[in-house]
Structure formats: structure tokens, C-alpha cells
Amino acid sequence: MSSLSRTCPEFLIVGGGVIGLSIAYELAGRGHQVLVVEKGALGQEASWAGAGLLPPANEKEAWDPQEQLRGLSHRLFPEWSARLKAETQIDNQFEVSGGLYLARDPGEAASLRMACVHYEEEGVEVQRLNPQQLAERFPHLQTGQPIRDAVYLPGEAVVRNPRHLQALVQGCRNRGVEFIENTQITRWRFQAEQLASVEINGQVVSPAVCCLATGAWSQLLTDQVLDHGNFSGRMQRPEIEPIRGQLVLLDAGQRFFTSPINEGVRYIVPRQDGLVLVGATVEEAGFDKSTTPEAIEDLTQFARQWVPRLADAKQVKAWSGLRPASVDRIPYLGQLPGMANVYLAAGHYRSGLHLSPATATVMSQLMCGETPQIDLHPFRVNRA
């Protein structure tokens, strides 16, 4: 990208996580000049920290915009994975693995049954398993404990999210996207309702369009933008809070099961190389990304309880990520009210990775002046 393109890019994306990178990748694929500014290292926050689970969806049967977004992403993910591998030679290890869902207590069982009804209404295949079927199909599982419900979703997929982020970064570079890392925007200047310029490392950058995609930090950023533009009190401000999720990685030596195991909010995800990822807690801990011995031990015991063969698996490492959660757990996708050329794409909570291809598609359409293929009214920034 030329110095002129860098100071006057068509699109400025603030945030280098999976949402920001995906939007940049899509826009660059359309032939646009894109600059991405990231306050830390690219793809190292919640996008990197998660498990890479991609629940099934059916775009053809989806009528609700939220389900349409999931359905579009579920269709696009294998296409994006194949394209990224061809463009970058980085394999994100996307595979349709199927997913096993288990419930031991009445509350979990009720939630699982409701989810199954919802899936079936969408036309997603759901296989309910009796104890004998469970034991035969999943011999590695400890079935000696009381299980109220067991469900298998053949359409569930997984991706190795750190490698997906690496592929996105390289794919963006190949398409001409420019990156500025470890840097924050220090000044926002508006002319009426138009963002005129920002200041980055002392340099004035004047984008035609700007998109904020900073995950759990998005509320802090939108507040900063609104305050700089003197928009206080003129709009319903988006509310996004960080929800910490702790995870632990075990080494089983080799892969001996292929389908992730889910119970409630926790999961056990086998990788192709014999590593097993176990997560995750759901904690309101502010922006504290530390791990706690109690949570890591609980997750480790959870994995070993369901999969006895993991009793001798060595703990490789533990970490946490901050999920960006909107109040209603629906992402914000749209224009900041009162601003002609500033958009927000954030608040995906636990589904950022899964929804990233569809988010990139509809946001690119919106920011390019096209009618998005999904109705974005439910995702509007100023919803009450």
C-alpha cells in the first residue's frame, strides 16, 4: 500500500481480532484499500483464546436474522477455510467433526431439549442417543455416571482458531491490507457528522469509512469516539462487557476421539495432534485476563471425569480470554447513529469466530453502500 493509501485509506478497521481481520479480508477481496490498527498484537485476544467450536446451522430454513447470520457463516466457513489454505498454505484444520452434548442435571437437560427443538425447527439434524448407543459410539466416554440426556449433532464443525487467525493475517497481507500493531488511536476529528481524520503515532489518517471491531474493548472505544465528536446524550450507547473464560490444554499423546464433548457451558475439544482443549469458565472479572488455580483444576477434573483416558494427560498450559458480551448477547452490526461514516461490529460474545465470515460479508456490503443480504435491524447499535 502506498503512503497515500495509508494516510487516506478507503477503509480503516480498528481492531485486529477475528471480526476486524475478516472484514478487512473481505473488503480487500473486493479490491478496496484497507488499513487495520490494533492496540496489541494481531489476533491475540478472544479470537485466539477460544475453542474453535462451530455449531450447526441451516441457512435455507432460517427465517430470523440472527439465525440467518449463523446459517450464512456455517455455509461460508468451509469455503473461507479452503480459500485461505489455497492463498496462504496455512491449514486452519477445519473439519466437520460432529458434536456430543450431555446433560446430568435437570436444568442442563431442559436447556438441551429446548436447543434440540430449536435445531430441528431449523432443519438441523439431531440424533438423540440412549445409554447403549452412547456407550457403543463413544467408548472413550465415562458412562458410569447418571446422564439424563445425550444428543449428537452431526453437522457441528471445529477449526483450530490460532491457525485460522494466522491464515487471516497472511490472507489480508496477500490482498494488500496494511497493518499498524501495538498502537492506539489518540485523536478523532469530526466535521459535523463525518469522521474527518484520526491520529495514529502522530500521523493524520483520513479514512473514507471507519469500522470499530475491538471486541471486549468496544464500549470503551465507542465512548471515546462519541465523546470526541460531542455526541453525548444523542444516542443509545452500545453496552459491551468483558466475560472471562479460562481454558486449559492437555496433551493426550495421540488423538483417540474426534467429536467435541459439551456439557452446559463447558467442553472438551480434541485436536488433530493429540492435544485436548478444555474450557471454559464464564466470569465477570472486568479486564482481568489472569487464570486461577481453582478454575484450571476444575476444568482438568471435568475432562478426566468424562474421559478417563485423560487421567495421565499432561497439562501443557492454561490461559483466558475476554468475550465481548452485549447486554442481550446479540452483536452490534451497523452504523453509529449520528455518524455518517463510522460503523460498529462487536459484541458477539461466545460466537465471534463462528459468526466472523457472515459478519464480514454483511458489514462489507453495508459499508460499501449495498443492501446487506441479511436484515441488520435486530443488530442496530441504538436498540433499546
Task: Give the C-level CATH assignment of the largest domain.
Answer: Alpha Beta
Physical arrangement of strands within the biggest beta sheet: 6-7-5-15-16-17-14-18
- β-strand amount: 15-25%
Shape: globular
| Number of discrete helical segments | 10
Helix content: 25-40%
List the helices and strands and how they pair.
Blueprint: H1 3-7, E1 11-14, H2 18-29, E2 34-37, H3 46-49, E3 53-54, H4 65-88, E4 95-96, E5 99-103, H5 106-122, E6 127-128, H6 131-137, E7 149-153, E8 157-158, H7 161-174, E9 178-180, E10 187-191, E11 194-200, E12 203-205, E13 209-212, H8 218-228, E14 240-251, E15 261-263, E16 266-270, E17 275-279, H9 293-306, E18 314-326, E19 332-335, E20 342-346, H10 352-367
